Amino acid sequence: MKRHLPNAVTCLNLLFGCLALTEIFAGRLDNGAWFVAAAAVADFADGLLARALRVSSAIGKDLDSLADMVSFGVVPGAILFKLLATGEAATPPPPIQYLPYVGFLVSIFSALRLAKFNNDTRQTTSFIGLPTPACTLVVASLPLILSHDRFGLHSVVLNPIVLVGLTVLLSGLLVAELPLFALKFKSLRWGDNRRRFIFLLLAAGLLLGLQAAAVPLIVLLYVLLSVPKTAAR
């Protein structure tokens, strides 16, 4: 029975991704963002549970990637599509009317990222390229920033140039040859996990102070904290 528990949690990830999509295409992007957060928790929990129970399988690995493709591949593309469509006039002239479809570049590069991860033996203890959940959390934070706009970012978030630029940047980071540390703790010793502890403490502080607006900064912090390790190689 216990060998099926991680897969059950992975299926929860997939379910939350499907629910996010229904909310996004109904125009309730903030609700969709919360389902994305739930999917991210399930995605983290299934790996944690598999390691704790010492169970793993090829089916579990494939199921995880399939669930991730929905929750962290299709979903962010759908959010960017809706945001780009929101930022356009009611009847935009060609070819501007097709601009929202640019958002699905993230979905395409997420698929490439997941396929690369499954076949790259270098990514057993760390990541090469931005993980799809991190990319999706950045995108999912945008509707939450809009619905709780404490810092007057509404015009920035809905600016088509900003959204297209973010889409291209995230797509590039997904497949970049950029080594990034993983949040996997083999022990709780400071020396073994200094980078992880610093990241979690700073991330918690940013979330408390900035709430949803902190998420893009947290992902940027994650990349920057990985740079010293990359440069040392």
Automatic annotation (TrEMBL):
Any one GO molecular-function label of the UniProt entry: phosphotransferase activity, for other substituted phosphate groups
Pfam families per the UniProt record, alphabetical: CDP-OH_P_transf
Any one of the GO CC terms: membrane
Keywords tagged on the record: Lipid biosynthesis, Lipid metabolism, Membrane, Phospholipid biosynthesis, Phospholipid metabolism, Transferase, Transmembrane, Transmembrane helix
Gene Ontology process terms (BP): phospholipid biosynthetic process
Transmembrane segments: 96-115, 127-146, 152-176, 197-225
Matching PROSITE patterns: CDP_ALCOHOL_P_TRANSF, PROKAR_LIPOPROTEIN
Subcellular locations according to the entry: Membrane
InterPro entries: CDP-alcohol_PTase-I, CDP-OH_P_trans, CDP-OH_PTrfase_TM_dom, CDP_ALCOHOL_P_TRANSF_CS
Keyword Membrane: yes
Family membership: Belongs to the CDP-alcohol phosphatidyltransferase class-I family.
Name listed for the protein in its UniProt record: CDP-alcohol phosphatidyltransferase family protein
Native source organism of the sequence: Hymenobacter cyanobacteriorum
